[in-house]
Amino acid sequence: MTADLRRSIVRFKNAISPAAAESELDRELTAHLTLLEDEYVRRGLTPAAARLEARRAFGGIDQTKELQRDSRSFVWLHDALRDLTLAGRLLRKHAMFTLTAVLSIGIGIGSNAAVFTLINALLFQRPAGVAAPDRLVDIGSTRNHTGFGPSSYPNFVDLRERTTTLEDVYAHPLFPQAMSLTGVDRTIAEGIFVTPVTVNYFRVLGATPALGRLFDARDHDEPGVSPFTILSHRYWTTRFASDPAIVGRTLTLNGRLFTIIGVAAEGFHGTGVRSGDAWIPFGIAGTMAANRAGAWLLLGGRLKAGVSFDRAAAEIANIGRTLEQEYPEENRGRGLRADSLSPLPGNGPVVTAFLLLVLAIVLVVLTIACANIVGVLLARAAARRSEVAVRLALGAGRGRLIRQMLTETFLLFGLGALVGIALARSAMPLIIPRLPPLPFPIEISLRMNVGVIVFTSGLALLAALCSGLLPAVQGAKTAVVSGLKDDSRSPERLRLRHLFIAAQIALSILLVVVAGLFVRSLQSAGSMNPGFEPHGLELMSFDLSQAGYTNETGPRFARAILDSVRNLRGVQSASMALVLPGGFETQERALQVPGVTPSDGQQAFGVDWNAVEPGYFTTLRIPLLSGRDFAEGDREGSENVAIVGEGIARQFWPGQNAVGHYLLQPTIGQRGPTAPTRTLRVVGVVRDVKASSLIDGLAASIVYTPLQQQYVPRLTVVVRGRPGSRQTDDLRATMMSLESDLPLRFQSLEEYSALGLVPQRIAIVLAGGLGLVGLLLAGLGVYGVTAYVVAARQREFGIRIALGAGRSRVVRMVLGHGLMLAVIGSTIGLLFAAGAGKLLSAFLFGASPLDIAMFSAVAGVFILTGLAACLVPAMRASVINPLEALKCE
Amino acid sequence: MASEESRRDENRREENRRVELLQGTLDLIVLRALSTMGPQHAYALAARLEQVADQSLTLNQGTLYPALVRLEQKGWIKGTWQKTENNRDAKYYAVTKSGLKGLHQEAARWRKLAGLVDKLLADESL
Question: How far is A479 from chain B, CA to nearest CA, in Å?
């Protein structure tokens, strides 16, 4: 066995570098012949005769060499290397073809590699530094049995107490919070993203510290009990230069002192894509802790040993149902759902569908690139017919010829794959900063790992085989006699090429139309018009309860803040609200409507609710459809009023003016059907806005009540400044003069709602860019085939011109040829696109899949491109010199 | 180039025909001869084999080379350049230690196979 292994290694070595073994063999054979000659001389022959006799006795020297070579090295490998050298020489010779081919393959492979990297990062990558991630679950709230949203604190506490299938349940806010950090080594405050977590967080995740310790049984969730913080490894490295003595130092976060007790392991950033700089204990109390209606927490847990995911999911759903029954007001329509751990909790299916769609698009791009290559390879195979015929006539095996031609294709695709990976690698960092600013850092590992490399190489191999086999077989099929006799191009081969070009145009059209449909659908989803004017709005958020304001003192202070802000010089209008549209948070409240009963047999409707100050609609530019805005007079003690969205008005009072109707609102915090209710008179109707997030593209209808009548401490001041001015500094100064103890958070509304817009932007950039690439490739393809046809018909054109055909007629013939290809391809492509539009209609948010205007525009662009691609070959055809054309063959 | 390839194809077919006759046995014969004669060059080996076979085997001298390279690559023999008594260059092949082991194994295998074939040929019930 080892002897055979040893031999294989030597054979391998000899195949790669045959020179040494070859000269050794030469020397040995020469020595052998010399000894034979000596023998014959000894027997009395003359030296010349002995020489001849020795050769005769030895037998064929070249045959012996061949036999020895076969034994000494791996012949297939030796042949492959020779093919590779030859292919390399051919590719160098046709540098222009090689360049365009490698580039188009590179684009095809590269876009696939990039998309697969993204898929890999978002769907398959396990979170770093987390033990047994398969046993972890994300838990989200459902609304009317769909969705996967945040949960309220009381619901979290109940779930944690009641579950028997999970070891423990942790919670943290949806996003890391921007806090101000002071007292490190700079005098001014700096920003830091802090994630408050329940202290069981690290234990449930099975995380380990790189330094010091993580939160454990010694720590507590109550505010102030554990004033400790843990730094992320990245923040420790970048901000503190990996200071080994960091544990024990203190940080002042939003004015409160925290002691650093540890640094998390390298790469650990929790379970999602969110990535903060530090963690602090949850520290929740007061209104936030008691508010069962406010949903703002992401939950997660670890399955107990031996418990299946399905069992835990069933139990969690059950607890959700129980909680809905126990708290019908706050939990109306709300349930709980468990999902296996994902970087994007609850969005798995949506993201998967989206990414698969994108993958399909880039696969089409690759197919187009391959069709391009096949076209050119077919032409090359045709051009090499006489060479092939000669080699066949001399006895070369067809299999050997096919192998040689395939080698060239594989080399081409190998180079293309390298270019593709390089493109993907260099494009990724370019794309990331183009993403809209996010309100918090995210961490997606877009490193090319083994999986990506394997995927890319496999894809390149498959593509090479698909593209190379047909031309190679075609090339080797050459009949010896006819191939030697004449060099004309058979019409059958041309038909095959035309087929490929038409298919290429068709696929490109499909791509561009799908891209266009996407843009259209996003437009129609209303992300361009969310129902208000999102530009130029600045937000300042705070929680008045953190500075000690109560339900009695809070409303007055909130009004005082707003009055001061409105007096600022750069402020056009300002207001205040509990939540703003475009973020992910929603507040839901139960409502009863006299004379209308819910169809599902419940006692009340669950609707989105917001508390706002007067001027909210003016500031956001939400049109008031009828009635009036809230006014100074709508205060505690006066008549309770509400403004409703048009959807709610339509739902409850179809065909009537909602103004003047009444709503009944159970008072918050009280349980049961007998809770006292508040009567609200509808004073206005406003246009609906995209409320919870812009992703779903659904307009939500909201019931607004005056903040002064229904106070909440967690508030956001929203300011529309005069164009070109930012108010952040003025706002901060104003707040400092009123209340210096309040942690503040500043954002623009674009930042606040940025996350919701990410998929749209990615889709538009990607689909648009790839559509353009498809157009370019199709243009190259048409150019290639037309140039080839012109070259092939040179003699014919020469004769025509010699017989008196006008040059313009020749140009028309060539252009007509290109036009025919473009029209046929476009027609087929549009048919495909219509079919694809139907298939995609689920993604189109109501945009028509049969967009005639766009279809014809795309087809027009392609036909023009086709014609443009024919121009140069047409000009070339028109200047053919008949004499030379007839002589040259 | 094409003609070279076609010739090689032919050679390979040729070798395959001989391989049926000699594959394994030639290697065994060479190994055995070297172990009894001591280090030899290819010419002496060929001459010796022709002599022993006594015309019953027309051995093309070149045929030895594939066998020699196979054995050398397996590490069973080792070639070194030396001078003959007439001061000519020649590559002398000597059986290595693992070559001796290999010879025993191969010989045993051959005997077993030959015995089996004998037995089967002699068995009249077959």
Answer: 17
pLDDT confidence bin for A672, thresholds 50/70/90? very low
Q: Say what the pLDDT of residue B17 is.
A: 45
pLDDT tens sequence across A257-314: 899 999 999 889 888 777 889 999 987 655 566 777 777 888 999 999 999 999 999 9
- Banded pLDDT at B1 (limits 50, 70, 90): very low
Ramachandran assignment for A254, one of left (phi > 0), alpha (psi -120 to 50 degrees), beta (any other): left
User: How far apart are the C-alpha atoms of B7 and A664, rounded to whole Å?
Assistant: 99
Q: Each residue of A126-151: b (16+ CB within 10 Å) or e?
A: ebbbbeebebbbbbbbbbeeebbbbb
Q: How far is A804 from chain B (nearest CA, A)?
A: 45
**Residue A845: closest CA among A749, A753, A759, A755:** A759
Question: What does the pLDDT read at residue A748?
Answer: 82
Query: Half-sphere exposure (CA, 13 Å, Cβ side) for B24?
Result: 11
Q: Provide, as residue numbers in chain A, all residues whose Cβ is less than 8 Å from the Cβ of B15.
A: 67, 70
Chain A CB contacts of B2 under 8 Å are: 390-391, 394-396
Q: Tell me how close the Cα of B66 comes to any Cα of chain A, in angstroms.
A: 4
Q: Tell me which amino acid residue A686 is.
A: V
Across the interface, whether the CB atoms of A67 and B62 are under 8 A apart is answered: yes
Decide if B42 and A4 are in contact by the 8 Å CB cutoff. no
Residue where the block lists tokens 């609304």: A143
Of B84, B89, B102, Cβ closest to residue A3: B102
Q: Count other C-beta atoms under 10 Å from residue A96's C-beta.
A: 7
B66/A25 touch (CB, cutoff 8 Å), yes or no: no
Task: Look at B75 and A38 and tell me if their CB atoms are within 8 Å.
Answer: no
Confidence bin at A674 (pLDDT 50/70/90):
very low
Q: How many CB atoms lie within 10 A of CB A846?
A: 10
- State the average pLDDT for chain A: 80
Q: Which residue has the higher pLDDT, A189 or A250?
A: A250
For A719-757, the pLDDT digits (tens) are 998 877 778 888 888 888 888 767 777 888 877 766 555
- Torsional class of A804: left (φ above 0), alpha (ψ -120 to 50), beta (otherwise): left
Residues A389-410, buried b or exposed e (16+ Cβ, 10 A)? bebbeeebebebbbbbbbbbbb
Do A395 and B75 lie within an 8 Å CB cutoff?
A: no
ipTM: 0.77
Nearest to B61 among A27, A58, A68 (CB): A58
Task: Name A703's bridge partners.
Answer: A609, A644
- Asked if pLDDT for residue A152 goes beyond 90, the answer is no
Specify burial of residue A715 (Cβ count, 10 A radius: 0-12, 13-18, 19+). Answer: buried
Q: What is the pLDDT of residues A463-483, one digit of tens each?
A: 888 888 888 887 777 666 665
Q: Residue A660 contacts by C-beta under 8 Å, 6 or more apart in sequence?
A: A681, A682
pLDDT at position A627: 92
Give the sign of the dihedral formed by CA A528, CA A532, CA A535, CA A538.
negative
Q: Do A64 and B84 touch (CB under 8 A)?
A: no
List beta partners, residue B94. Answer: B78
Dist. CA A387–CA A484, nearest whole Å = 8
Strand partners, A612: A577, A706
Q: Is A662 left (phi over 0), alpha (psi -120 to 50) or beta?
A: beta
Please judge whether B62 and A61 are an interchain contact, meaning their C-beta atoms are less than 8 angstroms apart: yes
